[in-house]
Amino acid sequence: MVKVNDTKERLLDAAHQLLWDESLAAASVDAICEKAGVKKGSFYHFFKSKEDLVAAALEAKFQSVKPELDRIFSSSVPPLDRLRKICDFLHQMQRQKLEQAGRVVGCPYASVGGSCSSEDGTIQGKTRDIMATQLKYLETAIRDGQADGSIPGRDARAAAESVFDFIEGAMTAARIRNDLKPVQNLDRGVFAMLGLPPDPLPGPAKAGAGAKARA
Amino acid sequence: MVKVNDTKERLLDAAHQLLWDESLAAASVDAICEKAGVKKGSFYHFFKSKEDLVAAALEAKFQSVKPELDRIFSSSVPPLDRLRKICDFLHQMQRQKLEQAGRVVGCPYASVGGSCSSEDGTIQGKTRDIMATQLKYLETAIRDGQADGSIPGRDARAAAESVFDFIEGAMTAARIRNDLKPVQNLDRGVFAMLGLPPDPLPGPAKAGAGAKARA
DNA sequence: TTGACAGTTGACCGATCAGTCAAGTAAAGT
DNA sequence: ACTTTACTTGACTGATCGGTCAACTGTCAA
């Protein structure tokens, strides 16, 4: 009995699911309403426009994963571990979405933000804001790493931007190719971008030919 | 008088311009026809569907820049120079499109491919093909570099994929933020990704504070 | 001269788009 | 008991979507 009226949440959930699993184009007001089991009149009781709902759905979803980001990027974790963890987190999330949605979905912010003309101010602005916030996590981790000597270089901001662009590019590639491979070893690309030697093979003494698992 | 009937070309041009400058959603059949100065009936005389036209427009545009790619990635050019040149080429192209379209447009293949549900087989398939072809240029250059010792590492394919993802991510970021900055120094990210030292500052003795241009 | 045919035209189709609205329900506030 | 308020509903609008069609035009070949 914690919540009797969850209409708004159902709309936000349905919208984000359509945005992420399908596309901005697939997330029509009618489709969102049908998926949420809500009539269109109710939709416009809670949101003044479709743009409004889309922006709210992106924001709500980001807020829901933010605690996880705060945990992963905790200052109590060594900077390189934060990077390893976020790469693994992104990979696992894509794997989970693949099972649930039946396809690789990539990053919703890049997909949605990239698929609107800049005129759609509200939506693209929201994706910009969220991605800027995500960038800060990377920037802080890299700056901490540079401070403790675990990461070479001095310009944490520029390094974070490059790493972020690489990750987003890999997510987009995974979506377009409908293939998890681009996001399977994000840490290798991230470490290379930062001028770090690649991680030793995961798992202790995992038999000889680790590289063969590629095939 | 070389061409009396350029209707098909006008449709392809108009379509690609809308796809690139605006979005897949903005490239409606009506909008394409209006921009091309062609009636819808004629459209369907040349193309059997909108998907058909979009795929053809993407392919046609790629074919039109292919000679430039072949020149940039010529085997007669040192591998590192090929990478420098393609980064500069992409930057200049984005700059030119910015002037022409009034905004940063990014990579049309990533934008279009990322903004359709995988169901749109034809279109997403075409973007996949084109991007796979582009990847081969990078792969060859990197393999040549690894062969002559100018690039460290052994797995040219994996390195090319990482570099490609980074470049695409930067193009997408530039589009979403409507800002050229992410594509202004692609070579730095590319070189870092390949484990290379950054290029020395461009231009001989370009006054002291090169880094100040950032602000 | 007459077809044949590539190309063009504008009217038209049903479906779907985002968004509106008046009427209704039900619970909370007075 | 009465009103206010939050929410729901289904029918509706005009615009636009992708796509069709029969009729028309010009050109070139037989």
Which keywords apply here?
homodimer; elongated; DNA-binding; mainly alpha; 215 residues
Q: Helical amount among residues of chain A, as a percent range?
A: 55-70%
User: What is the number of beta strands of chain A?
Assistant: 0
Strand count, sense and barrel status of the largest sheet of chain A are: none
* End-to-end Cα distance of chain A: 52 Å
Largest interface, and how many residues on either side?
Answer: A-B, 43 and 43 residues
Element pattern of chain A in H and E: HHHHHHHHH
Residue-averaged pLDDT of chain A: 91
Number of helices of chain A: 9
| Structural class by secondary-structure content of chain A | mainly alpha
Summarize the structure.
2 copies of one chain form a homodimer. Chain A has 215 residues and is mainly alpha-helical.
Structure description:
- Two copies of one chain form a homodimer.
- Chain A is an all-alpha fold.
- The first copy, chain A, contains nine helices and no strands.
- Chain A has helices spanning 7-21, 29-36, 40-46, 50-72, 79-101, 108-114, 121-148, 156-177, 186-193.
- The longest helix of chain A is centred in the middle third of the chain and has 28 residues, at 121-148.
- The A-B interface holds A 21-26, 103, 106, 110-111, 113-118, 124, 127-128, 131, 158, 161-162, 164-170, 172-173, 175-178, 182, 188-189, 192-195 and B 21-26, 103, 106, 110-111, 113-118, 124, 127-128, 131, 158, 161-162, 164-170, 172-173, 175-178, 182, 188-189, 192-195.
- Chain A binds a DNA duplex (30 and 30 nucleotides) through residues 5, 7, 28-30, 38-46, 49-50.
